[in-house]
């Protein structure tokens, strides 16, 4: 079964005389359980694609189907709820709330949905991402890689159908040279 399908997806940016075809007819199928990395040079359209897949921005044309639902057909409100329950999104700039600690950031989307956090599961995620001793730290007390892992923990905590992560691989898992 495909957890995500994309058909002829286009995103053209028209800012005055600067026309950019950021995506120009993307087709993609991702099966349930599949792990896929999209690699490309800076400016090649990776973030744009992820934003379209996550319903964060509207494509110029084309279809995005996640877990059997065509998200292009959803209203704004439906999309907000669908996104919060089904899609774990890790932003390129992490988007952590600066006045909330690590734990509060992680459980925020769950609480917005009026659900009680599964604290055993949250502890498991914190251990997995080596953040168990940072639970009560504020984002500005963390390294870039640690902040990115908090953003990943927040995405995992909602038990989403799919995780879309706009990540720097090196800051997550370490590289010999930094990029
Ligand atoms: N909001 C925007 N307005 C105009 N052009 C944009 C906008 N966002 C991205 N672009 C352009 O789209 C192209 C792809 O950008 P992006 O998806 O951010 O690339 P990547 O994430 O692969 O580095 C770039 O040429 C960029 O300048
Ligand atoms: Mg990018």
From TrEMBL:
Q: Which InterPro entries match?
A: ABC_transporter-like_ATP-bd, ABC_transporter-like_CS, ABC_transpr_LolD-like, MacB-like_ATP-bd, P-loop_NTPase
Which UniProt key words apply to this protein? ATP-binding, Nucleotide-binding, Transport
Ranges for domain ABC transporter come to 4-179
The answer to keyword Transport applying to this record is yes
What would be one Gene Ontology cellular-component term for the protein? plasma membrane
Gene3D superfamilies noted in UniProt: P-loop containing nucleotide triphosphate hydrolases (3.40.50.300)
Q: Which PROSITE patterns match?
A: ABC_TRANSPORTER_1, ABC_TRANSPORTER_2
Extract the GO molecular function terms from the UniProt entry: ATP binding; ATP hydrolysis activity; transmembrane transporter activity
This chain's protein is named ABC transporter ATP-binding protein
The species this protein belongs to is Blautia pseudococcoides
């Amino acid at each position: 079964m495909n957890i995500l399908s994309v058909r002829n997806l286009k995103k053209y940016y028209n800012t005055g005389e600067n026309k950019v075809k950021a995506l120009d007819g993307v087709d993609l199928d991702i099966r349930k359980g599949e792990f896929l990395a999209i690699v490309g040079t800076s400016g090649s359209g990776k973030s744009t694609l992820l934003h379209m897949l996550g319903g964060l921005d509207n494509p110029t044309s084309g279809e995005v189907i996640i877990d059997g639902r065509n998200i292009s057909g959803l209203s704004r409100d439906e999309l907000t709820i669908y996104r919060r329950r089904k899609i774990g999104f890790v932003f390129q700039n992490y988007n952590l709330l600066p006045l909330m600690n690590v734990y509060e950031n992680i459980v925020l989307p769950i609480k917005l949905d009026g659900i009680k956090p599964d604290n055993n599961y949250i502890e498991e995620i914190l251990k997995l991402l080596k953040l168990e001793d940072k639970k009560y730290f504020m984002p500005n007390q963390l390294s870039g890689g640690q902040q990115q892992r908090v953003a990943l923990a927040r995405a995992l905590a909602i038990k989403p159908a799919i995780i879309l992560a706009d990540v720097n691989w090196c800051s997550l898992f370490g590289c010999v040279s930094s990029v």
